[in-house]
Amino acid sequence: MMGTHYMVARTSSRSSTLTVTADVAAIPTFHFTSPWHAIRTILAVLVLGTTTGIVATRFVFGIGAITNLSNQFPLGIWIGFDVMSGVALAAGGFVITAMAHIFNIERFKPLARPAVLTALLGYILAVGGLMVDLGRPYNVWRPLVHWQYHSPLWEVGVCVATYTSVLFMEFLPIILERLNDFEFITKRLPIMPIYHRLKKISILFVITGVVLSTLHQSSLGSLWVLLPTKVYPLWYSIYLPVFFWLSAIAAGLTMTIVESTLSSKAFKRGLELDVLADLALITSVVLTIYMIVKGADLYSKGDWTLLRKQNLQTASFFAEMGLGVYVPAVLFAIKPLRYKPAVLFSGALMVVVFGISLNRLNVSLIGLWPYTGRIYTPSWMELMVTTALVGLGVIIFGQLAKYLPIFPDESEHGSSH
After folding, report:
1. Does the first or last residue of the chain, that is N or C, have fewer Cβ atoms within 10 Å of its Cβ?
2. Residue of 72, 62, 68, 154 lying closest to 371 (CA atoms)
3. Residue partners of 83: CB distance under 8 A and separation at least 6
4. What is the pLDDT of residue 270?
5. What is the DSSP letter of 28?
């Protein structure tokens, strides 16, 4: 009888313990905040999951298993968009930091941290895309050891690798500021001494970054100077390095406008309208100079007559210069318009999509078709990898901006330590 009572008591005690444990260790659930949130999340999972399978296929069966590239057309959309456009669109890292820290323009300093983060992610993802594109990615280290200093491609590779490291050093103080909030870390590591030392020499990283960016942004244009009979005359020029550098400056300015506008909505913070309007005015000047030198170059070569032809290249050139350069330059030059957030964002997005991305594709893809014929168009798997890289960049930026002091109101406490 006593044994029965003991078993009942043990059973009752065990069941009550299990109930309490289940209540305390409840399994967390994920809730969608809106239908759009659900759609966005599902699409992201599908794209990233599919891309993971595609990349795995590439490394198992070779690059030919997922692309339409060939020995006759070895540089496709992964170079034209992922690398050439990606590097140009990350130019805010050197443009904004140069204005904020080298020229010491105070009103641009709040934009420096988001610009550096955008640039760092842009370069890392461009390198990631390049690793998928390279036929033998395990040899990517060789340019750092075997110097081919007569090669523009070697110069681009070395500068991109070095500048990515410089960007990380520019971004490291932001990480240290957040780590300083955790006492168990500061007790074990000299967080703030490292932070203060980095801040003292930060101008050296900024200057180095500007020099390296100027070199490889222009050298990306030098690659195509080597193809005088293959690139369509509307884009071929001995001054392609200058054109690429000028357009990269415009890309850096407008990407800062796009990023600031989107982040202000995503994080429910104010829009720096006066500062962005100043960037838009500078962009208008840069785009005007770009139009003048491009027009002068076409006229001096006698290639302006090609604008009368009715073909894909002429249409793409007018789309690039009209929608990506002329219209934004006019919009940004008119003061009442550039102080309207919708106009600011639309004009900047036109530069990003048509003035930069389409330009790089025109030079590296559409501008080669008259010579090669359409022997290459991107496969759906190539497009999927490109889409995934862009989406991954947006996701990582959002997560880092949520937890690190990227924006001015969040970083005030860190800078005073």
Report:
1. N
2. 72
3. 126, 129, 130, 133
4. 79
5. P
C-alpha 116/C-alpha 170 separation (Å) is 7
Q: Are 411 and 174 in contact (CB under 8 A)?
A: yes
Amino acid at 244: F
Query: Using CA atoms, how far apart are residues 51 and 153, in angstroms rounded to an integer?
Result: 27
Q: How far apart are CA 354 and CA 12, in angstroms?
A: 72
How many domains, the chain? Answer: 1
Best CA proximity match to 213, nearest among 53, 95, 62, 378: 95
Identify whether 148 is part of a domain: yes
Does residue 238 belong to any structural domain of this protein? yes
Please answer whether residues 92 and 118 qualify as being in contact, where contact means their C-beta atoms are separated by less than 8 angstroms.
yes
Other CB atoms closer than 10 Å to residue 257's CB: what's the count?
Answer: 29
- DSSP letters, 124-155, are HHHHHHHHHH-SSGGGTTHHHHS--TT-HHHH
Residue 23 burial by CB count (10 A; 0-12/13-18/19+): exposed, middle or buried? Answer: exposed
> In sequence order, what are the residues at sequence separation of 6 or more whose Cβ sits closer than 8 angstroms to the Cβ of residue 248?
87, 88, 91, 213, 217, 356
Query: 365-383 burial, b for 16+ CB within 10 Å, e for fewer?
Result: bbbbbeeeeeebebbebbe
Does 17 reside within a domain? no
147 backbone φψ class: left, alpha, beta (φ>0; ψ -120 to 50): beta
**Residue 327 placed within a domain:** yes
Domain span including residue 370: 39-411
**What's the full length of the chain, in residues?**
417
Q: How far apart are CA 252 and CA 250, in angstroms?
A: 5
End-to-end CA separation in angstroms for the chain: 71
> Cβ atoms within 10 A of the Cβ of 406, count?
21
Alpha-carbon gap, residue 209 to 197, rounded angstroms: 18
Question: Which of 83, 72, 61, 71 shows the shortest CA–CA distance to 133?
Answer: 83
- Ordered mean pLDDT values, 10 residues apiece, the chain (417 residues): 42 41 48 77 90 94 92 90 91 92 91 93 91 88 86 87 92 92 87 90 92 90 92 95 95 94 85 92 97 95 92 95 96 94 95 96 95 92 94 91 79 42
Query: Helix crossing, 152-179 with 112-133: angle to 10°?
Result: 130
